[in-house]
Design brief:
Helix content is about 70%, strand content about 0%. By secondary structure, the chain is mainly α.
Amino acid sequence: MKGILTRIYEWFPIVFLIIIWYVPRQTALHGFFEEYTILRWITLFIIPLWGIIQISINIYTKRGLKLTPLIIPILCFGLLLLISSFLNKTPFAQLIGAGLLYLRYPILFIILVNMDLPKNILKVFTFVFGTLLLIQIPECLYRYLVLGITQDHISWSMGPWGTMDLGVYSIYFTSILVSYGIFKKIRFYHLLIGGFFIIALLGEIRAFYFAIFPVVVVVCLVALKDFSKDKFIRTGIFFSLLIVFFVLSLKLWDRIYSTRNDFFTKLVSAQKRKEIIQEYKKPLLLVKKNSSKDTSKRDKFQDTIKKIAGLPGVHRVAWFYDYFYKINPPFINALFGFGPGASFAGFFWREKGKIYRYDNVNKKNQIIRILADVGLVGLAIFYWLLFCVLNILVKVKKHISDNEMKIFVCATIGMWFFYTFLCPLYTLAWRFDAPSYIFFFYSAMVYKIYKHDINKSYVTG
């Protein structure tokens, strides 16, 4: 019995992947677990329990706990949560909730580093990850071609909110496929990247189109640091494939969403593209027309920013304007936020956070959410934590010579770029399970290899 439990625990990262893949998103309206909304936050309970179990194992086996370089920014962020909570008189429950939302996956990084994992865990995890994603392609095609369903409901198994997850998973797995193709060979299954464009098209996952090329560029630049003619040729082939998939899917975009009049539909339609140009010219023309000698430069600047921030599509990245102009927090709140939980939507605590007192603010942006909770200091500390992860990845890249492992290192750096800079502009990347778990899992595996100098047989099984 003890041996069976040990084996289950060793392979639990795979089980956990399946849990976060299906369970939280099915708690949405009309989802399979619609009546059990507590499951939306199931990882807030699993990860602390996971940590307690691992600490108990370390104590029982008399092994020291490997705290990793992430422990210092984690502790600093925790201390900041306490300070912000004290300044804003935040309830203790919200303090704990916010702490778990932001820190559970960095803490899981430490848990994974301390676990005794099977030698082929990385290979099996990647296989399961890819399989779960690839079976979404026929499901999405069936639901569109047979049932006529698109957008948020394109995947039944992923739930009504699953399109965001699908976009993240597609970008992450594309990083792995591209990195593999550069270091090894380009094979027929690399054409499956085209399937990710199909998912993005049918699910109307516009962020995928904006993010995929920058992420692939980062992966290629890191991989090409060890330059060779073969790698350069493979990189060129990948970009050619991506451009073909990009153009073909966008040709179909205006047909599928011809009745929509949003920013992206205009962008891909030749007839509607002129409207965007005119919309972006308007703010500057209006400011120039209405300005006078008596108007201060500050007023002109604020007017320009206000008009540009209100244009279609810009609201996703206008966090600076939303927070510092629309909300305009006092200096102490700008530094330390309005307290942990100030960005909560009210699903769990049944009370909306302070940020919801302000209208016309993009509350789906991760940057503005963390600013509301812990201010500029908290944002700086969290970026410090993420750059600690990057430092680990760069050290590993320099340390290892095995191409098998370089595949995962370069792919994880691509994930890091997306998780750190692109995804937070679009959604709550640092609090959601989909972007966080896979990124921190691969980062933890890379760190284990660097720290313990694991050889090729350990990694590939």
